[in-house]
Amino acid sequence: MGAKLPLMRIAVVQCSKLSDDARRAGDAIVQRLRWADDEGIGLTVFPEAFLLGHSYAPETIRSRASVAASAVAALCERVAAFHSTLVVGAFDLVDGQVFNSAIIIEAGRVVGRYSKAHPNEPGVTAGSDFPTFLRSGVRYGVNICNDANHPGTAQRIANQDARLILYPLNNMLPSETADRWRDKSLANLIDRARQTGCWVASSDVTGTFGNLVSYGCTAIVTPEGNVADRVPELREGVAVYDVPAC
């Protein structure tokens, strides 16, 4: 019998939308990371802009970006004791420019970030770097939400011998728009998995917020395009899967 392939257990979280309350977001993250350590999760992913909330209003985006550094620093202190790598989204401010970023935190330290290459939020600068990271023998990278509509963005990650592409999403949209994207969001993830030969894992918000709705598209997709696990629509929860290192 051949040796078993090493595995990394990943968890992608589907949760309610928060506004700009970094403390409440931190509470949700700490609660989930405590569970993740008990379950042997190596990598835990939260939705796009989850730490301070998503927006399409330029003034709100810049306001949230201006406090991101302090919010991330406070979060790092709170999660320093946990073993799972954390990926969480936030608008952040770098040299006067606003980016929509996914921040990678390990043992209370920011080890990297990816900034959305195809932002559809006013005033947000497109990222140009495509870093990859290694956890438990699995090389992974990040794309964010609208990036899933651009095959070349996923390919930039796959070309670096990545095994896994993470997709923090935020599909909180007006109801008619949400209906149009209800099936398309998952179809995009399946297309990106088949195109790149990578595992794909997404984390989304769900529920209603004013006149907005997100059904939630939180799923783990195999390189063949099969859905290995998915959180039911309109429910908070987590999808978990053991991804092989090679």
Automatic annotation (TrEMBL):
Pfam families per UniProt: CN_hydrolase (PF00795)
Entry superkingdom: Bacteria
Domain spans labelled CN hydrolase: 8-245
Keyword Hydrolase attributed: yes
InterPro entries: Aliph_Amidase/BUP, C-N_Hydrolase, C-N_Hydrolase_sf
Transmembrane segments: none
Gene3D superfamilies: Carbon-nitrogen hydrolase
GO molecular function: hydrolase activity
Key words, A-Z: Hydrolase
Name recorded for this polypeptide: Hypothetical carbon-nitrogen hydrolase family protein
Organism: Sphingomonas glacialis
Source lineage: Bacteria, Pseudomonadati, Pseudomonadota, Alphaproteobacteria, Sphingomonadales
